[in-house]
Every structure is written in structure tokens, then in C-alpha cells.
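User: Predict the structure for this protein chain, please.
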Amino acid sequence: MLPSGDAERVDAVVVGAGHNGLVAANRLADAGWRVLVLEATDTAGGATRSAELAAPGWLTDLGSAFHPLGAASPVLRALRLEEHGLRWSHAPQPLAHVLPDDSAAVISRDLDVTAASVDAFAPGDGDAWRALAAQWQDLREPLLDALLSPFPPVRGGLRLLRKVGSPDLLRLVRRLLLPALRFSAEEFRGEGARVLVAGNAMHADVPPTGSGSTAFGWLLSMLAQDVGFPVPVGGSGALAAALVARLEARGGRVETDRPVSAVLVERGAAVGVVDRAGGTVRADRAVLADVPAPVLYRELVGEEHLPARLRADLDRFQWDHAVLKVDWALSGRVPWTAAGARDAGTVHVGADTTGLVDLGGDLAAGRVPRTPYLILGQLTTADPTRSPRGTESLWGYTRVPHDALRGPGEVEAHVARMEAVLERHAPGFGDLVVGRAVSGPDELQRQNPGLIRGALMAGTASPHQQLVFRPTPGLGRPDTVVDRLFLAGASAHPGGAVHGGPGAAAARAALARSGRLGPAYAAVIRAGHRVVHGTPGSTA
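Assistant: Here is the predicted structure, written as C-alpha cells:
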């Protein structure tokens, strides 16, 4: 039953104002729904927020900083956020990978520059890269449509099949399932091109020896070549601000500092939420949750509403590796020895392909890597508004095993290792630091409750937790075992990164459930959940 007292009424309530929650809210508002978004923190955006952490005047991003998928995503492009203030900015070069010998491989939006860079490591690799880039241009639209569409991707899949044909579609699927190291060995002879692909795979938590890592390494490499690694002018919070502005223009609302403590369930259906202060919002059509799946099911819904198989599957849910993030305010640009890194927005440093393999082994074994692999963002190089002229706002993170850094002393020791890597490849770096902010896994979760234990992807991106296995073995859809409750965050297919896919899929499912064929839709989904999960309250 609903708590006593008057309840606010809307068509849909969205729990969490991360970018996926805001995408979902916008889609529903476009359909004429009355939408309310409730956010636990004081600012909308989730992992797309910005603040002056390291020093006044040096703006950094609290979570995601560079958005190749955001710029290419058909979901975000359809929202036309540029009409609501979003502007993209590019560094002169999207990405550089600095190797231990201080050479650097570079991806440029100028294909000739990229080809020359990888050719310097092995003649012929430039032509191989050109061939991959040409294939990417041919496949780009149907492939992104298929990757970011609700599961199963019928429309995008058919477009992709028509484009490549059955035999080559099988080869494309094989490529996506390959370990990045194997794919690189098949396509290239030199370390430059190989480390670019393997290094980009490490943006997810899948090691370059892991099945499926090519899906990330090849995809991000081709996006860097195609649309670059752009940043929103004024910080990633500008992306969230554009989503909020668009929503409000359509009558939707966002309330911050209003954490949700429970999803209200009546007769097997979600009917609203209760906030932490005891206030009730009644949702006449749907509740959508942009929160990690374990949080939604165990903390907001309650295990009494879950089938036993789902409860057991949640015990096996795997988080992605934790992140230690550091923001530096620098009085000048990073003094890289490697010329290729100086104009790159994103810089990878700390490992060659062998080092990336070692890193994956350390993380799998629960060891803190002795030499951190850093993913860095030269934010002012990419967007001059981020800090005073002639300075740099440097954003960086490295992955660590969960619970491996057990206190401030161990966190600081690892930060010292990170800075030693930078000093080795940019002598004099330390002399430029005028401010520094360290965000360990616990601090990341305090900043954003959705980053559980410092996990950026809301669950591992490994194949065993993708598609119909995301977030647990099921239907691969945002529909949950509770009718009219939809998972709209990165724990749902198609997973993490800033592209809006999970939010758009959840909105689409909510509209289908509320439409003319809604009862039939619900019956099909309910039957599927019974087959996979059993019935709520069951013991088997």
C-alpha cells in the first residue's frame, strides 16, 4: 500500500539524473508525458559533471571527460542538444599513446597523420590502418545503430546485414569477440598501431587478452579517427545542462538533493517512489531507474519482490575494476618528451602492449600494479575555457583492484607512482603543479552514489555480462521483473560510456508498456521473466 498522505502525481518518475536518466526523461517528455527526475546529489549529471577541484579557475570533470561515443551516438544526435547550449571542442589531435621508450603513436582526425604515425613503427601499417578506416566509414551508421539499440537490435542488425552480407557479418562478429592483442597481431606488424588498439580497450575493464576487448579497442580507435575525442565546451556538465534545458522546455522537471529510498510496488507493479524525507511521488505510467542494478533491486525494490533465481544471479554480479582519479592544476602545459603527446587531448602512458598484459594480470590477481597505466585528459588543450591561458587542467585515472587501496596512505602511495610515471615522461611535471585533487574509489562514490566502489561502467563490460547477460542472465532488455519498472542506467544493455543507449531503451520500453498494446507487451515480458527467473517469492 502507498504511505498515507497526499502523493504528488506524474506519468513517470525517473530515479537518478545521470545522462541516461535525463535521456529517458527527454524521450518520455517528447511523447507528452509528465516527467519528474529525482537526483540524490546537488547537481544533475551523474558522471557527466564538472567542478573546480584542484584549484580555483581550473575546471575539471568529475567522471567522464572525452565523449567520442557521445558525439557519434544516434541517440544523442537525435536530441539536437546543440539547440540547448551544447558545443563540442577538439584538441589538435584526439589521442596519443606514449611508450616506455618515449616514442608516441598518434591517432589524428587527419588519416594521413595517423597512417604516417603507425607507419613509423612498421612500414605497411599505415595502409592497414587506412583499410580499417575505410571499412569503418562504410559500417559506421548501421553498426552504431545495432550496438546502441534495444536488444535484440532488429533494425540495426538488418541494416548491418544488408551492408556487409552474411559471410562478412560473421567475420565482423568474430572481430568484435577477439582479444585486442590477437586482433592487433592479425592486422598490424608494429607496436604503434597495436598499442593504440590495446590501449583504447583499456577504457573499459576488459584486458587486451580478454575476449571482446577488440569491440572496445577497435571501436574507440575508429571513433578517434572519425569524430575525434571531443569534450563539451565548459565541461562535461554542459552536456547534462543541455539535457536538463531540453527537458524543462518540454515541461519536465529535475529535483536535486532528493534521494529516493524505495520504489513502491503494488500487486507486482511499480506505482511510485518514496524519497528519503518520506515524501511520495505516484507514477501513473512508469518508474525508470538510472542506478546500478544491484542498488535498484536490493535497496530500492527489496528482495521480497524478486524471484530466487534473480537473487542468486545478483550474488554473481561483477563490478568493473575500481578507479583512482587525480586532477592536477598546472601552471603550464605538460612538458612531454614525446612530441606526439603535446597536442593530444587524451594521452595513454605507462605501458606498451606487454605492460598492458601485465596490468591485466595484476588486476585479475587483485594486485596493485607497480607501474600504473594512466589514461589522461589534457582538458585545456582540448577546451581552452578550462583554465587560464598558458596553463593546463589535467585529468587522469588508473584502474586498481577493488578494496586494494586500504586507506589514505596507500592511496597517496599509488598517486606517487602515477606522478612518477608522469615525471619520467614529462620531466619537470611536478614543478608545474599548483593544485591537486585525489578521488579514490570511496570518494568517487561519495561524489556520485552510482559509482559503486569506484566502478565507472556499472558492472564489468566482459562478454559474460553483456547482451542477454546484462545485468544478469535475462532478456537483455530494460524491463524488470516488476511491471512498469525499467532499468535505465549503464547496468542495462548496451552498457557504460556516454551514449544514452540504456536511457533511450528504457523510455522506449515504458512507452510500449503504456501503449495500446501494453497489456500484451506486459504479458510477453512477464512470461519471459518467469522462464528465466521464476516467480517473485519463489525459492527456486
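The mean pLDDT is 93.
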